[in-house]
Amino acid sequence: MIVCHCQNISDKDINAAIDWMRASDAETIVTPGKVYRALGKAADCGGCMPLFLATMRKNDNFEVPMQLRGLRRPATEETSDERRSEGYRVSQHGAQK
Fold first, then answer.
1. pTM of structure
2. Per the CB 3.0–4.6 Å rule, which of 11, 14, 55, 88 could disulfide with 84?
3. How many helices (DSSP H) and strands (DSSP E) are in the chain?
């Protein structure tokens, strides 16, 4: 089945790319970008992305390797708000005369 009409990528192409990536590096994180690059192509319009991702998720080799699960640290009060503090612009500090 054709998944991406713009780049002529089928579900078989996606599965073959995922299987090849997993076979060459068991600890790799498989992403859509890596699949496109493995196929020598690039995303175009993005209309296929929901089907592309659904196809990837169906592949048994798509899962994140066990040793890499749980590496994300939970957000704490200190890191949950990473926005810049107010007054970070020089113009907001006022001109020194």
1. 0.68
2. 88
3. 4, 2
Please state the rounded mean pLDDT for residues 33-41: 95
Question: What are 64's two structure tokens?
Answer: 């994140």
Q: Contact, 14 vs 4, CB < 8 A?
A: no
pLDDT at 28: 86
Task: Count the neighbouring beta carbons within 10 Å of the beta carbon of residue 55.
Answer: 24
Instruction: For the chain, give percent helix, strand, coil, nearest 5.
Output: 40, 5, 55
Query: For residue 13, what are the CA distances in angstroms to 7, 22, 34, 47, 94?
Result: 11, 14, 13, 18, 58
pLDDT, residue 26, reads 85
Backbone angles phi, psi at 10, to 5 degrees: -100, 170
Q: Which residue type occupies 41?
A: K
